[in-house]
Amino acid sequence: MDIRQKFEDDVDAAVSGALNKIGAPCLKFIKEVSDMADLAVPCFTMSKELKADPKDIAEKLAAHIEPSGLITSAIALNGYLNFTMDEAVLTEETLKKILTEGSGYGSMPRNGIKINIEHTSTNPTGPIHVGRARNPIIGDTLARSLIKCGYDVQTEYYVNDVGKQVVILAWGVKNIRKDSVTEEERNKADHKLVAYYREANRRMEEDDNVKEQISEMLRKFEDGDRNIINDIRQTAEVMLDGLKETLSDINVEIDRYTWESDFVIDGSAKDVVRRLKESKYTGRTEDGAWYIDLKDFGIQGKNTKFTFTRSDGTTLYTTRDLAYHLDKFKRTDRAIDVLGEDQKLGSKHLCSALGILGSKNIPEAMFYSFVSLPEGKMSTRKGVVVYLDDLIDEAVSRALEEIRSRRSDLPEDEMHSIARKVGIGAIRYNIVRVHPEKQLVFKWDEALNFDGNSGPYIQYVYARAGSILRKAGKYEFDTDPNMLADEYERALIRILSRFGGTVREAGEEKRIHVLPAYGHKVAVAFNQFYSAVPVLASDGNRNARLTLVECTRTVLRNVLDCLGIEYPEEM
RNA sequence: GGGUCCGUGGGGUAGCGGAUUAUCCUUUCGGCCUUCGGAGCCGAAUACCCGGGUUCGAAUCCCGGCGGACCCGCCA
Fold first, then answer.
1. pTM > 0.90
2. Which of A188, A228, A434, A531 is the most exposed place for a label (fewest CB within 10 A)?
3. What's the domain range around A26?
């Protein structure tokens, strides 16, 4: 069991016991971590019920608590009941746990619960741009966190191969001659195809004939013309290959790809229509389109109607999305959708409609706001974009430049390999660092920061710690708390002991931005320890300090792993 | 017009009822290489959008402004 958890349990028991003694059993109280104590119980919350001054309550309670278990003291201060934890036990148990669990340190046992995380799912009409780059990185980090929390996680990409946009792209690929696409594009499937997409859009706007051809394709598509559907699907497959390459570059692998068109082909979207028509909330417009009215479901605004068929009876995106989610819940216990903020209302609609369909499950949404450029929002169609591929290239080349300037001793291919890890680390760290719903304006220098609160800062500490261990050679583990009594050592160990709680918060509460913050804290504490305390040159406690260095490295590795960031041995 | 989210030092960001010091990064200024990697360490400077209210206590909750983002399709 986690040592901090045990301490919390001890505090719970102590406070409950003391409350019992002062004649207020079952009174609720809260615990918080603070700088003043290992765990504090604010007594303000109890003052109303007990009709007493918080300070008095704290003192009364303190008087009834004898240090026991992991509690070494319970002191009343300013209305708080401050508990301190047995530091020697904390030190020893934490280090031992890290040594025995290694890469599993911080992880919870498997719980058998299946979670499906749908993320990225960008339209297959162009490369991933920085505006949406938060999606795969948030999704992947959450997936990694939940795996560590013991869940059985599957990630999934929903390929939107239905609709006008993909038809335009397919038309372009079929009808535009290669030499008339003059744009300079990188040699990568998605970039090559997007040129056709843009050109097709341009021609459609200028030429009514083209517009008509595209409408014709769309009609055939709606009628279920297999040739058209296959054409589009093939184009989307090619595009997807390019997208997968980009995702792989940032260490994102997606377990499953589900195609929207499948829900048209297998009739499940039609089935949703049939079932929705039976609902009491359902109505029909004069033109014959079907809708459900969601005004009883907390949906506000001038239009609460959620249309699920066109007047000609064909299905809409949202209808297929319903079929998709019903399908998902056949395969999973919980579903999480990582979505752009523009999907907020749509997601609410989806959940209400799922309820009407009798689904016991609804997806949990995790929203992020788009990254914009200083000059405004990005648009693939207009070509006002910074592609994720460009960001990756720039990050890697800046990292390479950096390495060249400090490590001319390394062979060329080694420098390239490190530059990749560092550049990608900077990108991923920088994105999960901030709360997903906070607006982000893209600036090169901020996105590619290698100092301070950054991925490379943590990687640097990892490499530095590794260097010490390499120089040390063989040594015996020593977890004796008496050998690690320095304040910097104690501070570092304290932070190392909090990793499990951080992983839990990241996964269970979907607060992944606590991970980079935690990693940074570990790195800072190590750097402080490093500059204040000699390791190799120390006398009696060399082994203990080396053990601490090794434990720090293990935790750092686990944090980086959870963030999908690689850890170079040297940099 | 209605809804949702966001507003914290010069820039970025954490905290989202609690402890007379509001976090971290960047920036600026001043220190630290005869110690294990200076992508580092130490110190200083500068902030809760505005106005009301609730509370013993508000950056945090409520109401009203202001500013920004997103949404309110028989688009996806």
1. yes
2. A531
3. 3-85
